[in-house]
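Regression test case RT-17, inverse folding.

Input:
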C-alpha cells in the first residue's frame, strides 16, 4: 500500500473522529446508563427507544403534507439510541405525479435508510411493511394523520383500529391515539403505536455534534477549510458546495440547519 496523501489522511481523521464521538455517546447512553440529570428531561420516545428493535417512521405525501424535518429528527434519534430505522412514505395513492415520491424515496435509500412507499388504499408496499414488522418489537411514530392506523389495519385487519381524519381547514391530522398503545400481531411481533408527535428534542446533543448525524456530509467534510467546520457560515465549506451542486439534497441540508438552530 502506498503512502497516504495529506487529503486522504484528513478524510480518514474526520471519519474516525466523527465515529468516535457517536460511539462514545452510545456507550454513555447504553452501557454506562444515562446520567440522572439527562434522564429526567428525556421525552418518552427516547426512553421507549431502548426497549424496541426498530423505529418505523411514518409520513404522508399529502393530507397532511410531507415534512422531512421530522423524519430526519427521528433518524437522528435512531442513530443515538442505536436502533434500526425504517422510513414509511404513505398515501402514494393521492399523488397524481409520482416524481416527488420517487425523489424522496431515493434521497433516503441512498443514505442507507430502508424506505418503503405505501398506500393502505391501493395496497402498495403493504407486504413489504408486514415482512419488516414480523418477528420484531417496533415503535410506529410520525405526525398525526399520516395513516398509521390505516397501515396497521391493512397489515393486521383484526385490529380494527379507528382511522384518523384530517382537518379540511388546517390540513393537520386529528388525533385518534392520545396515549401509547401496544398491539401484538403474533407471538413474536409487537407494534407500539405512539401518539402523533410534532417535534423531537435533543437536550443531550451539542450543536458541534449535529454534523455527525448527517452521514452524507462525511464524503465532503474533510475538504472543508476548517477541521471543525459546522457547514453553516464558514468560508470554503465543501459541504455547502456539495449542496449547491445537489450532491447533498437541499431538504436534508435545511433539516441540518434547523437541527443546529434548535440546539443553540
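Golden output:
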Amino acid at each position: 500500500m502506498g503512502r497516504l496523501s495529506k487529503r486522504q489522511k484528513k478524510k480518514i481523521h474526520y471519519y474516525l473522529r466523527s465515529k468516535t464521538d457517536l460511539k462514545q455517546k452510545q456507550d454513555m447512553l447504553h452501557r454506562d446508563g444515562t446520567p440522572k440529570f439527562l434522564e429526567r428531561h428525556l421525552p418518552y420516545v427516547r426512553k421507549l427507544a431502548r426497549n424496541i428493535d426498530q423505529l418505523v417512521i411514518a409520513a404522508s405525501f399529502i393530507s397532511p403534507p410531507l415534512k422531512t424535518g421530522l423524519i430526519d429528527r427521528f433518524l437522528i434519534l435512531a442513530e443515538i439510541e442505536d436502533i434500526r430505522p425504517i422510513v414509511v412514505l404513505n398515501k402514494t395513492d393521492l399523488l397524481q405525479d409520482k416524481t416527488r415520491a420517487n425523489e424522496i424515496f431515493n434521497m433516503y435509500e441512498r443514505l442507507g435508510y430502508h424506505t418503503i412507499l405505501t398506500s393502505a388504499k391501493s395496497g402498495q408496499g403493504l407486504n413489504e411493511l408486514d415482512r419488516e414488522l414480523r418477528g420484531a418489537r417496533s415503535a410506529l411514530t410520525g405526525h398525526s394523520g399520516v395513516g398509521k392506523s390505516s397501515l396497521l389495519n391493512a397489515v393486521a385487519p383484526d385490529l380494527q383500529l379507528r382511522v384518523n381524519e384530517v382537518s379540511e381547514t388546517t390540513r393537520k391530522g386529528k388525533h385518534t391515539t392520545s396515549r401509547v398503545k401496544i398491539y401484538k400481531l403474533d407471538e413474536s411481533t409487537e407494534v407500539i403505536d405512539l401518539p402523533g408527535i410534532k417535534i423531537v428534542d435533543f437536550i443531550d446533543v451539542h450543536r458541534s455534534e449535529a454534523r455527525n448525524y448527517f452521514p452524507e456530509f462525511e464524503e465532503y467534510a474533510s475538504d472543508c477549510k476548517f477541521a471543525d467546520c459546522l457547514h453553516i457560515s464558514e468560508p470554503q465549506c465543501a459541504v455547502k458546495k456539495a449542496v449547491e451542486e445537489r450532491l447533498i439534497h437541499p431538504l436534508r441540508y435545511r433539516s441540518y440547519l434547523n437541527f443546529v438552530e434548535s440546539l443553540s
